[in-house]
User: Fold these one by one.
Assistant:
Number 1:
Amino acid sequence: MGRWEPDARGRMIKAALDLFAERGFEQTTAGDIAESAGVTERTFFRHFADKREVLFDGSATLERTACEAIRSAPAGLPPLDAALAGMAAGGDLLQERREHAVRRSLIVAATPALKERELLKLASMTEATTEALRERGAPQRDAALAAHSAVTVFSVAFVHWVSTPDAPGFAACVAETAAALRALM
Amino acid sequence: MGRWEPDARGRMIKAALDLFAERGFEQTTAGDIAESAGVTERTFFRHFADKREVLFDGSATLERTACEAIRSAPAGLPPLDAALAGMAAGGDLLQERREHAVRRSLIVAATPALKERELLKLASMTEATTEALRERGAPQRDAALAAHSAVTVFSVAFVHWVSTPDAPGFAACVAETAAALRALM
DNA sequence: CCTGACGATGACAGTGACTGACATCAACAA
DNA sequence: TTGTTGATGTCAGTCACTGTCATCGTCAGG
């Protein structure tokens, strides 16, 4: 055990979520979050590259989970289907902490600066997905298009999943949304 | 005529592009840009909401152009095709200033903070496109999916158009990319 | 038990992005 | 002639973020 209370990182994440929900993102300083978590502002910036990142701690895990699912999908599966399997796997992760995901999404939706960061994370997921599809043999452009489409489905499905109180599983939302997309083409 | 040299805004945009290309975005302060354009830093922030915005002056026009094209598309055209027509119209705008578009895209691609802002602009274009498609009678989810798909095509086509020296027209890139997307489904 | 490397944190000064408030001054209208 | 307007300058202030050095439990080696 260290000299200080353990899990400073977790405390900062929780404090940030609470404060952002109460006063809003802009009205909360990094110092406020740090103080509320019992650390200094400097420590906050040692854990998070910037003030926004404190709300995106799980995004790397989400991306990794999705990519692993894609890599372990049957070799014969077409790129888009493989990518969608990845999105469904990522969705399972959110499903395990639905309440947190919903609360967080409300804050993000209310703050342009956070929306912007979320888009960057989605773009990162798109790039990672593209790479995973390339490893399966898809040509660059097909991989990019399938990845973009899958992430689109993920986003649209997420909005539906969040706004539906008694939601079916996230995977079901993905399947439904994917079907609608195919119908449009 | 005012008390000062005219077109302060245009001078700042040009100065920013030059300085970002020379030293990079982070190594250039807002004060540097202002000084180089012969104004004060305060004036810079009166014209641009933040340092990034100076590189996104044309995005509102691009969005408006695309939406107008969608609204004036034949009523019977399916949502995706109408949206793609909008993207092609937007592409024509870039085509008129290809050199500027390419130079700018290099800077944006090299700077995560600018990439992030670009994603926000694309998201805005997606939302506007969704709304335009809804006005044509498309249900919400179909409109959102078609808009996302069209903007995806726009992005992928743009990368190809930029990286191809003797490019065919932007509209041709859009058509080609759209065909590839349809083939994936 | 002593000791030195290690790792997480605190303390503090500094830069730069951005904002609010007020002053200035050419152009233009009454 | 005078009052208004609009774009700008000036200046002080907050806050995001960084570099640097000091601190002090922990743990391995002696």
Number 2:
Amino acid sequence: MPAPSKREQIVDHALRLFYSNGFHATGVDRIIAEAGVSKKTLYSHFRTKDELILATLRKRDELFRNRMMRETEMHAASPRERLLAVFDFLGNWFHDKDFSGCMFINASAEFAEESCPSHMVSAEHKRLVVEYLESLATVAGAREPAELANELNMLMEGAIVYAYVMGDKQAAGRAREMARVFVDRQLD
Amino acid sequence: MPAPSKREQIVDHALRLFYSNGFHATGVDRIIAEAGVSKKTLYSHFRTKDELILATLRKRDELFRNRMMRETEMHAASPRERLLAVFDFLGNWFHDKDFSGCMFINASAEFAEESCPSHMVSAEHKRLVVEYLESLATVAGAREPAELANELNMLMEGAIVYAYVMGDKQAAGRAREMARVFVDRQLD
DNA sequence: TCGAAAGTAAACAGATCGGTGTACTTAGGA
DNA sequence: TCCTAAGTACACCGATCTGTTTACTTTCGA
């Protein structure tokens, strides 16, 4: 295994700090201190802090969706069960020691402007999640895969807010029960 | 109508700025400039910026829930229709010119620590919304009012994320359709 | 009418912000 | 072996941050 590049070190530590402390509240001095690199090195890899933020969001999108797909498909036998297993992944995620909500909802909160790159990357992440759900729905034989995907995602987003804002991690299970209704409707 | 007190001026302008630009990104200098008061005055009414933030969140909770209750009850004839009219209010809100998502989700994003006062006020706001939904569900004769209230709120939170992060303001209507399923189940 | 309370403008404090510049060191391939 | 690229440490820049202080003015009720 090759040693992580300086760039990777920076992105990894920035990702952790941005996720747990917020974007504006995390200064570049803190990032370079924890990543163990000089400020010169950071600014040779990223033109501005905003570009670093974008890089962390892109990495988060990759890591998050990979985990979601892996955990969803690991313990679900049938295509239909897979649609519900997404909520089991959600419950696992909520119980992570470092769970701090959805990084993309958080980014949108700090970067309100819809045309802002960080907000756009966040919207794109959500779109890709729905796309994955739609592929699951299609395989499962849903009558309206796109509709079902958005119904399931609506419940996922709701559960995330419950888990993060209200600290209610049982929300994943309740969302699963609600989801079953919509899965049943579309698959008989 | 009495002239607004200095304190009210400060809270009103701070509320608007925090909501549309974020908490960390909004400096007190900007607030006093737009409110037209001196820094001395601000700090005579609020010990710190954090206390001002708390005051804006409390005012937002009051304004938001008052509007929600008013708009929900205005155009809904029966108790059962009222449960769905909440989603009509949601759609109206999404189309506000200055819509910037849920201020309490945004606050939680910037103040991650669950024990942080701003996060706690946000959680309390959500609890009060669910409480209102439960009262509607009780009046409508739901079999499990608390359960129905949380189902409806789960859909509301999901719709808010769709509207804000993805810019999909039609989500309110889709959430309404989903909500109908759960209302039907509980009221026959 | 006078005195306290509440307001103003503006300088100031000390820290931190994102970002740059300088001078030196290290590592690796031609 | 030597050159280049990439790294380090650290001082520095101007701007901005939250919060305080000073000195003056306005308002208004006893």
